[in-house]
Amino acid sequence: MSETASTPPDPGSRRFRNAVVGCLVACGVLGLLATATCVGFVVWVRRPGTMIDPARLVGEDTRGVVAWTLRLDDPGTRAFVESMLERAEQERRSQTSVLPAPLGELLGAYGGRRDRTNVEQLFPLTVSWTSHGEPGSEPLDLLAVSVERLGNRVVVADWFLALVVSRSADLDVVRHGGQRIYVLRNGAAFFLRSGDVLVASSLPTARRAAERLAGPSGGAGAGAVTRLLEEVPADAALRDAVAGPETDRLLAVLTGGPMPRVDAAACPQGALVAGGLTGASGARATVTVLCDDATWIAERGPELVRAIGSGPLAGTRVELAPDTPAGALVVDLEVDDLTGLVERLFETPVVAE
User: Is 352 within 8 Å of 249 (Cβ atoms)?
Assistant: First the structure.
């Protein structure tokens, strides 16, 4: 009978194998954590934000507010966007017509898909302007652009901007209301939040906006403009409410010049605008001028229609609404070429009293 000699395992080799296995497991766990972190960060960055309700930027010191909300589920907005994409497609075809047919079609199709994706990422969006200040003082303006789908991408941009500003002498940073407010050398200020960019004419205006956004969602006060804005249909794409001197500025924009007043302290007392896009290049709006003076309404109504029709909005169909409530002058506007109208408005100087 023969005996088989057995060699005991080397303790050092066993420890080495255990160490290798432990390292592999640790690396795997770290890899999973890194992957999960990267995926989580990408998901967080792509998370949409919440569009600003312009009413939250309105307070007792607000003179006027104009807000335009564009959504692709609105037929007028969809038709306008499709028209702009079609124009871009025609321009692209003219540029790629010199290329061989297969290559030109390939580049055209790719460019069309890219343009559509880039454009649709901008919707829904809200652009609003508010004017603040005491009567008799210079207006303090605030422009807010809110793009829901940009969401936390704007937060990331804010992080990078903060790093740049820390090494720049052209911008100062002030923290207020939970926001990082950047102050330019000319006194203007702006700040970024999830999906939103707000630009103010002064630091106090930016601070007030940050406070109102950090406060209750119901708004920042029951001033005259707040009450007027509540009368504008909430589903209108274009919503405008002005009071006091801002009413004169609105009428000056519509007519290209100041509208004489019967009583500078009485009329007009305010104005409302509700409207939206109606197609590829059309728009419709209703302007309601508020005034308790029946004489002003009777005398200035036809004059206002003539002034609008011969001013910067020349070519727009303008008519007095047949049924108007007491104390109001209602004018209906309809334009077929919105792009041309906007170009004329920017080219026409506006004079206000």
Answer: yes
